[in-house]
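TASK: fixed-backbone design
INPUT:
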């Protein structure tokens, strides 16, 4: 019948039949890794710029409320920062409101990211409030 194999040993025929299974797993793993790196290279810089831009809006809101600056100066600085960070912010997507008690800045934009298979639309929305002293 079959050859008897001692405990702890593997039959040579069994080893021969399993050749190649590790290569397929390796190829699948490498493809998944490459897709992950590609998506990361496309999305991470956009997220970093959005985070930096959000921080800038927060700072501008706080300091504009304290410095009592005109809305035009603040709008220009925010739009200039958006250009610097390659953010497609239009003037109509930036709203500044100054009430008797607070300064409110709202900014929103949408950035399409081409992922070759599909287009991912990254949506940014930030609303900051700061008290006026």
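OUTPUT:
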């Amino acid at each position: 019948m079959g050859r008897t194999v001692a405990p702890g040993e593997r039959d040579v025929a069994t080893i021969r039949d399993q050749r190649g299974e590790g290569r397929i797993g390796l190829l699948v793993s490498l493809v998944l890794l490459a897709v992950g790196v590609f998506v990361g290279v496309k999305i991470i810089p956009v997220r970093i710029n959005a985070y930096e831009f959000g921080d800038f809006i927060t700072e501008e809101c706080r300091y504009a409320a304290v410095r009592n600056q005109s809305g035009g100066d603040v709008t220009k600085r925010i739009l200039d920062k958006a250009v610097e960070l390659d953010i497609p912010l239009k003037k109509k997507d930036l709203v500044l409101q100054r009430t008797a008690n607070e300064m409110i800045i709202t900014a929103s934009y949408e950035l399409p990211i081409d992922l070759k298979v599909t287009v991912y639309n990254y949506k940014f929305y930030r609303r900051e409030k700061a008290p006026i002293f």
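COMMENT: The chain has a mean pLDDT of 85.
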